[in-house]
Each structure stands twice: as C-alpha cells, then as structure tokens.
Amino acid sequence: MAEDILHDFLTIVFDKPGYSQKIIEINNITSGGANYTSALFSINLQTSDKTIKLFAKVATMSKEMRTAVKADKMFKTEEFVYNKLIPVYNNLQKDLDEEHKFVFPEFYGCNNEFGKETVILENLVEHGYKSYSRFKSMDWDHGRVGVEALARFHALSFALSKRDPEGFQKIATDMAYTFDKDTLSQTAIDQFKEMVEKALSVLKEEEYRERIRKFLFETNLLDKHYKPLSAPVLAHGDYRLSNLLFKEKGHDLSAVVVDYQTLHTGCPVADLFYFIFMGSDEHFRRLYYDKLVNHYYTSLEEALQMLAVDPVEVYPRESFESDLKELLPFVVQTAVLTLPLVVVESESAPKWDSEGADFSTIILKPTALYIQRFTGIINDLIRWGAI
C-alpha cells in the first residue's frame, strides 16, 4: 500500500521535462526500530542521462495511533518545514561559506493528502552519510558535531527573530506546543502511570523512586516541559543521534539533521538535553557533559556572530545557565517516556501501523540497556541535586 502511494506521488513530482523516460526502482528500508510513523524507501530514478538517488517516507499508522500521538499535526509540521521554513532559513544563511551553514537535506516534494503523507528527499546514504548506532553511547566527536549543528539550527531562529520580528512571532505562535490536561482520558492517565512505574521498578533505592514519582505526577508537567523559558526558538523536538547522519570529511565529521515532525516553539536547552541524555551513558557524561554543554554555547555564539546577531542581546550566557538549571529536572520525564523507544531492540519495537495499535504499544518491558541508561540518568540528576 505505502509503496503504491509513493509510486503514484513520484510520477506527479517528476512529471516535468527531462524525466519523461524515467524508470523507477523502489526498495523498502528497515529502520530497525528507529522510526514509527512511516514506511521508509530508497529510490533509484533513472532518466535518459542520469540516475537520481532518493529517500522517501510514507505515513503508515493506525487510526488510534494517529490520534494518540497527534500525527496529523506532525505531518503538517514537516510539510511546513520543508516547503516554507527551510527556504527562509537558507536565505538567512545564503552569504555564509558552506563550512558554517546549517545543512538541510535536498527536498523534492511533499504529499499532504490525509493518510498518504509522503516526503521525498535526497538519499544521504548514497552521498556517504551514515547513521550512528542508537545502542552505543555517543563518543566525543559525534557529540561535538551534533551540538555544533544544533547551535547553528537554533541560531537561525534568533536571526529570523531579529530580521523579521513579526514573521518570527507568527511562526512561533503557530508552532507553539499545546497541552490540555483536561482532555486526557483516564486510560491515557493510567498508561502514563504504568510507564512511570515500569521505569521506577529498575531503581534499587526506594527514596529515589518516591522522589521521582512525586515530581512526575506534578500538575502541568508536560505543559511546563515544552514551553520556552528565557529565549524562544524553533526547537527540533526529537534531536537525537538517530535523527542525524554523519559523514567523514578528512579527519573531521559533518552532520545533516533529518525528521522535523516535532518542530515547535521551545527552549534551546530542551533540545540540548534531549540530545545528550538520549544518546549517552553515565560514563560519557562524567567525562564530557560540562565540556559538551559549554561547546554548544560557544558554537551558538559563533553561529550568531556569523549571522550578524549579538549573542548577548538574544541569549546571554546567564540566561543559558538559568535555563540549564531550570530544565535539568525534566530530563527524568524524557527518560521515562522516550528513552524506552530510543533503545528498544528491533524485534520488540512497537508496530504503529498494525490494526488496532494504540498508545499502550509504547509501554515496553525494560531492557538491560534501558536499565543501565535510565539508572545512569537518575544517578546524574541525584548527584547534581536536580531531583
């Protein structure tokens, strides 16, 4: 079904001069549990004189899951990013040399028809980019390059807000995260409690369990977590190693960020914490946490200066440090809700396209890797006095 949808859309996208003699080869790609909303494909589009290597994803979700994760909004968000936001951002950085630009994948087309949502991009793997194993803790080089890219991404928000305040404000309003606890069903509340208890069951210290349980059941927790603090930006929302592709450039690395379905108006630090804690273990953070956090901010300063924006004016170091302190406790929420999906074994990954699949499919049995990562996060937060 998804392949038929893709084939039909490809014929529309490439119905233009120079593509009339095209031959399309479509192959399924498995994400190995790294993607839940879509079926993934690689495409070879052969014309009379060249082969174009493409990547596509086609929405495949049950009706229940579309509702549970607000997938309609996710797909519309991604369409907005590729069709409208990226051209604006690329115009902001048009005078920068390639080394200092935030790189977006080349975009070919987007289908916004309900139930057939499709995005077609260049196939970065064919250009030498590789994914980083989500089962491995990041190393310094991948962490460094990841936060450099994140800083450049956030810098574009600040640049837009300075050059076009009204335009930025409109986008920020449209992309605001909304959460209405009064609309939650009792089933959803019970499922959240079950996820919390599964996570807490891996902790040995009863004191830790009680402390975390009290924090997680605080009123309006989700609403607080995703709101901007001192400086709003268009946050990625799912900025983890699985959503970056890396390429070796001599003795260095470059990175391209993908998957913009969860973009929202948020806090820069939320993206930074998500990247660090969803992609590293306790040992890495003992060695590099402070260094990586500092590298993000110095990279942001550099990116802002390249865009002729004064860092002190839009996001001074004092505000950054304040955001770090205020948001750090909320890492435990991400560890409960998201980490199980990040490190789940491929064979145990939930199938959101299955008939009748609903939110309960993401309540996963803790794996050995999850226990190690989750315990490490709690150890850090307790040691740092965050919870």
From TrEMBL:
One of its GO terms (molecular function) is kinase activity. It comes from the Eukaryota. InterPro entries: CHK_kinase-like, EcKL, Kinase-like_dom_sf. Transmembrane segments: none annotated. Gene3D superfamilies: 3.90.1200.10. PANTHER family: PROTEIN KINASE-LIKE DOMAIN-CONTAINING (PTHR11012). This is Ecdysteroid 22-kinase. It comes from Danaus plexippus plexippus.
